[in-house]
Amino acid sequence: MKRYGDARDGVTALDDVSLTMSSGELTVLLGPSGCGKTTLLRSVGGLVTPDSGSIHIGDQPVFSSADRIDVATRKRHIGMVFQSYALWPNLSVFDNVAFPLKEQRTSRAAIRTRVADGLELVGCAHLSRRFPHELSGGQQQRVALARALAAEPRLLLLDEPLSNLDAGLRVRMRGEIRRVQQRTEQTMIHVTHDQGEALALADRLVVMRSGQVIQMGTPREVYEDPRTAFVADFLGSANLVEVRRHRPDGSVETPLGPMTAARDHHQGSDGAAYVAIRQEDVHLGEGPCGRGCANEYELSLQAVEYLGDHQLATLAGGGEARLIARCPAGERLRPGIGYRVCLPAERCSVVPS
């Protein structure tokens, strides 16, 4: 999609977005509020119309500004699961799931079979006679998922379906969505702003910002090798150490001192650069690292934040340089003393701002 937005207002919700999503794959669109991820999902679903570009589902063009194609939503053979569940309050669970099948004029026998199979798949077979107001939030979301799958769509779109659930139920439901997707091999596009949800669900992760795709890949690829400071900081918490200059030997000069990074994504880019390293990759001890560490510094431990299963240690070097290390909860840390800190070069990346 080349563009979606109002040029007069200076708002471009989508700006030259180009993606290919494979059949049977669960693709997650991740980004902050207003980045364009829901607009992209709705464009695929035919709920909004891009200003220019093209969209194909399988071999079928469902939108093309050049060829003046814009297939209606109901003819795109897609399913949708919304944040608000969108269940009909006057219909039972069975009738909610059966509704799209009745619209397709499916036979009664086939409806009974497919509704029963769908409810069994999501663990709600015992709820078929209940009404939405008699269900918990998690049960309503499972029913909405069964309804979307009952029509056997080519593509299933999920627009922040877990955001209304409490934290514990969100974790359980994301496991349910992943299980159903793997069992059915249903192609899905899932929108979220929750980084943990995105990492847990995705086969392919797409990070968006300001209407553009910033980076995509497997969750591990994007997390372990961020290409920009935004991706490093948004997807998990990363330390970003300012790069003052590139040195002739390939290392960089930082407020902590010379630093070697295994990857340099800033080469050829203008503007500021940072060395990105994850909090869990910052190692500290009271004596020398003794591991042939390429980046070793003497830093002062300023504060420790205990978070139950781990603790965060804030370390300070010269000037305003700061690092945060994620440490085991049982490790004894003493604020006010100096620690030797190792930043493994293979875990460091130079990224543009």
How would you describe this structure to a colleague?
The structure is a single chain. The chain has eight helices and 23 strands. The protein is of the alpha+beta class. The protein has two domains: 2-224, 3-Layer(aba) Sandwich (Rossmann fold); 231-352, OB fold (Dihydrolipoamide Acetyltransferase, E2P). The strands form six sheets. The protein has a six-stranded mixed beta sheet, with helices on both faces. It has a five-stranded antiparallel beta sheet with strand order 18-22-19-20-21, with no helix packed on it. Strand 20 and strand 21 form a beta hairpin. The protein is elongated and about 75 Å long. The two termini are 25 Å apart. The model has no long low-confidence stretch (mean pLDDT 90).
Short account of what is shown:
The chain has 353 residues and is α+β, with helices and mostly antiparallel strands. It has eight helices and 23 strands.
Measured as a percent range, the helix fraction is 10-25%
Number of helices: 8
Shape: elongated
Structure class: alpha+beta
Strand adjacency order, main sheet: 7-8-9-3-10-11
Number of strands: 23
Question: Remind me, CATH topology of the largest domain?
Answer: Rossmann fold
Low-confidence regions: none
Q: What's the CATH C level of the largest domain?
A: Alpha Beta
